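INFO  loader      accepted 1 record
INFO  loader      residues=338
INFO  predictor   begin
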Amino acid sequence: MKDQITATQTEALARIGEVEDARSLEDARVAILGKQGSLTQLSAGMRDVPKEEKAEVGQLLNAARQAITSALEEKKAGLQAIADAKALEGIDLTLPPRPLHGGSLHPLTLIRDEAIQILRRMGFALAEGPEIEDEFHCFDALNTPEDHPARNEKDTFYFDSGKLLRTHTSSVQVRTMETEKPPVRIIAPGSAYRRDEIDATHLSVFNQLEGLYVDTDVSLGDLKGTLEYFFHELFGPETDVRFRPHFFPFTEPSFEIDVKLHVKGQAPKWIEVAGCGMVDPAVFESIDGNRKDDAFDPAAVTGFAFGMGLDRLAMIRWGIKDIRLLIENDVRFLKQFA
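INFO  predictor   done
INFO  writer      dumping tokens
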């Protein structure tokens, strides 16, 4: 048995030394250490070795296996080194390398992060909510009548269950008021969905940032000052901002906000960027009805809400004329922001 082990080891090492490619090396490994390999068969014969010789024979077997395994690993490393050297043949190491282009944040991410930072400095906290909503949180709690166009299937994505893809992140405001008591000061950035025809200024999926501030004695002056400061920080201190009376079901009074856009070679023009207003008392009553308390008693608290499209803010900031560029993942366009 001892002589067989020694002979098998010698033959195995010789065969490994003669191997010239990876395939032949694998064949040698299987022939020696595989289930039917020569060394494996010798190991199976240990049951027939006399008891007094088992320890010595076992040590010899282990030593042979280790020697063969080491030889296989060394041969494999040697063959790989030869293959690597061949792969490098003909390469001119003096050629300059290809430049590695650094990545960057998407313009929507840049404008969202900057907007959040400005509002966080004013004490607003981040809030989140589900994108698949029910009609109460998306419409009913916001004083939206049943015949409002937004509740029509032509304008909103409904599921067979009756749920829908939220048409604005105002639903986050409702969910926040359901779980927290005044004072509440939150912003809710996120996706919204509407059945809009996709063109240069509209997408069916867009990004919003909405805000809510509820406390005692919150005034229209607080709303105006907050948003003027926000747009001055975002677009520059010389930015002209105006508030136009408008109608929204969930705020009263309500306003649309415009900023004056100055483009070189063109006459300045007003661009709508946001909607806002004082929270309608009917919204507070709906919240209290759902909470079953008077935490948002309209006689005790007031508040303001606002909402803006981040896509439009990005278009204004960088002069982007087609909103579709923000979703097409064209590297030629995106690398401008690197």
